[in-house]
Design a protein that fits this description.
There is one protein chain. This protein has 372 residues and is mainly β. 0% of the residues lie in helices and 57% in strands. The protein is built from no helices and 31 strands. The strands form seven sheets. Strands 1, 2, 3, 4 and 5 form a five-stranded antiparallel beta sheet that branches. Strand 20 and strand 21 form a beta hairpin. It is globular and about 50 Å long. It starts with 8 loop residues before the first strand and ends with a strand.
């Protein structure tokens, strides 16, 4: 990578495909603060890094997600414009052709703009995107704008689109996960202020209608994350503040089963918690990872749900450190890799680490230092 490629570098992304191919993306600022250009490099089987030919640019351009495909390729979501006039796009990256290939726009023809596209894909290669619809002026304008969550799933004839949240409700901070069998789960925060916020979730199995529900009461939750396993098991993790402390909650569902209900559990309570991150293992077990700031610093811990029973709390990083959950991945054999950033108490970065977790227990390997 030459030094000119690094001028004004922002918004980096990296993805590794199951076949070992790697994609790295980054933006550089262009002729002004509102003009950015997307660049990328790919490599196959740990070989030589090669630049992607061509580029993508636009006003307020941002990469919002990037995932591995099923045909030795990658998919990238970008947005341009602002929340009031934005557009989301999808691009295919072929490591052999080394170029950005534009896919049909997921959302078109509506008066609304779109932003913050998030991607998921099933084993058949069917791509889905969840995004935020442009604010709609309420009759009582100038009141607060209303955001809605929408989803688009690619079919043989284009995109199948649907609004998941109703007119008149404020919904943001969405997260999407797609199971190998085609089941989809999308979480979001419903409510404009902290007194209203609750966890909303929309689920669709491989076939059948969308089902929406709320997992928490109003005024109780401000962040949620989702995961999906190969067999249609989906999971949502979130935190609920109670009297100055937090409760970490976990809900699971078999999305492929018609009429199945969410099973909600308390993971841990009475701590200062954050980063609730579920992972569905190939076996169907669910690992919930979270941070605990109840003592000096912030360490990571987890519990594993297997056959309806939660295992013991397992501490993943040392007490006295200050860590944040980063990327989390699960291998085909069920080994969970937890990437985290370690900071000092002045919030200076000390390094990026990966902790292996096997059947809910930190693996025998020492945490791997990726960068310092």
């Amino acid at each position: 990578m030459c030094s000119s490629d690094l001028a004004g570098l922002v918004n980096p992304f990296s993805v590794t495909a199951p076949d070992g191919s790697d994609l790295v993306l980054w933006l550089t600022t262009g002729g002004g603060p509102v003009s950015n250009e997307l660049h990328g490099k790919v490599r196959r089987d740990g070989g030589r890094w090669r630049s992607i030919r061509g580029s993508v640019d636009g006003p307020y351009l941002a990469v919002t997600d990037a995932i591995a495909g099923v045909d030795h390729d990658f998919w990238v979501a970008t947005s341009t414009g602002t929340s009031y006039d934005g557009h989301v796009r999808v691009w295919r990256v072929d490591p052999v052709a080394r170029r950005f290939e534009s896919a049909p726009a997921p959302f078109t023809g509506a008066a609304n703009g779109w932003s913050e596209g998030q991607l998921g894909i099933d084993r058949a290669g069917r791509l889905s995107m969840a995004a935020i619809a442009r604010p709609v002026e309420q009759p009582s304008w100038p009141a607060d704008p209303v955001y809605r969550i929408a989803v688009a799933t690619r079919t043989g004839s284009g995109w199948e689109r649907r609004m998941l949240t109703p007119v008149g409700r404020f919904a943001v901070r969405h997260d999407i996960a797609v199971a190998a069998d085609g089941s989809i789960v999308i979480s979001y925060i419903d409510g404009y202020d902290t007194a209203q916020m609750r966890i909303g979730v929309a689920v669709r199995g491989p076939s059948g209608p969308w089902r929406t529900s709320f997992l928490s009461a109003e005024g109780s939750s401000q962040v949620a994350r989702v995961a999906a396993g190969p067999d249609g098991t989906v999971a949502v993790g979130w935190t609920t503040p109670v009297l100055g402390a937090d409760t970490v909650r976990l809900a699971t569902l078999d999305a492929s089963a018609a009429g199945a209900r969410w099973a909600k559990r308390t993971v841990v309570s009475g701590i200062v918690a954050g980063d609730p991150t579920p992972v569905v293992e190939p076996s169907g077990a669910v690992l919930i990872i979270y941070s605990d700031s109840s003592v000096s610093g912030r360490f990571l811990a987890s519990r594993r749900l297997l056959h309806g029973s939660l295992g013991a709390v397992r501490q993943l990083t040392a007490t006295g450190e200050f860590t944040e959950v980063g990327a989390v991945a699960v291998t085909g054999r069920g080994r969970v890799l937890v990437g985290h950033r370690q900071l000092d108490f002045g919030l200076g970065q000390l390094g990026l680490f990966v902790v292996p977790v096997v059947r809910g227990v930190p693996g025998p390997d020492a945490p791997a230092l990726l960068d310092a």
